[in-house]
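User: tokens in, sequence out, please.
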């Protein structure tokens, strides 16, 4: 992003520094190597093809899911029947912990965005591992804490009073966990349809807003990606 604050239509954009973003977004959202290896020893790997539903919202589950390879789409459907993208699950990230620990249902729809390899970890084996390995237990608590913070970020984005603020906040949120560094900024691996769902607006309106951002030198639009520019 630009080193100075840029005012646009009354909105004072925040400074987003690419240096604060890791090569795969927020590196803290992934498990440590120690935890990964420990979980690999007790889980079973399953392959999921593009478009397959791994979990449905409201489904009872007894396994946590650790993504080994690929990308999973996490979304919910609104009362109006529209899909709202929440985030992507990336390699090294685990999902379903809160549902498994609380013995409750899964709160979202989880769909394979690309062919993916997922480690399924049964509740009994996971609890046994946590009882034996405090390092893994602390790591999983850290992941749960991050998920709570991400949930509040999402709720805050949705509460933005204008479309431009909501789209910009969504871009920044995606940059934290689904981006790669490029010479002039950070590249978000997101298409405009997904961004529109996440920002709870039509694709046409979001496209118009993105083009205004581009005209003001804040972003660069590409094929299935958006670059947040920095000076």
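Assistant: Sequence out:
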């Amino acid at each position: 992003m630009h080193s100075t604050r840029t005012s646009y239509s009354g909105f004072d954009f925040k400074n987003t520094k690419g240096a604060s973003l890791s090569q795969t977004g927020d590196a803290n959202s992934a498990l440590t190597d120690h935890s990964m290896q420990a979980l690999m020893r007790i889980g079973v790997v399953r392959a999921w093809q593009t478009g397959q539903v791994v979990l449905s919202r409201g489904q009872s589950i007894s396994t946590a899911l650790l993504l080994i390879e690929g990308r999973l789409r996490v979304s919910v459907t609104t009362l109006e029947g529209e899909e709202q993208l929440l985030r992507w699950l990336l390699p090294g990230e685990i999902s379903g912990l809160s549902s498994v620990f609380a013995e409750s249902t899964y709160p979202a729809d989880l769909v394979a965005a690309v062919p993916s390899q997922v480690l399924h970890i049964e509740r009994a084996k996971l609890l046994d591992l946590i009882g034996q390995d405090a390092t893994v237990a602390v790591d999983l608590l850290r992941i749960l804490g991050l998920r709570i913070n991400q949930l509040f970020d999402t709720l805050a984005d949705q509460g933005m009073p204008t479309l431009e603020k909501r789209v910009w906040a969504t871009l920044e949120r995606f940059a934290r966990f689904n981006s790669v560094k490029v010479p002039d900024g950070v590249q978000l691996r997101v298409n405009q349809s997904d961004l529109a769902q996440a920002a709870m607006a039509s694709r046409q309106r979001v496209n118009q807003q993105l083009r205004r951002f581009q005209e003001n030198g804040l972003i660069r639009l590409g094929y299935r990606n958006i670059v947040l520019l920095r000076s």
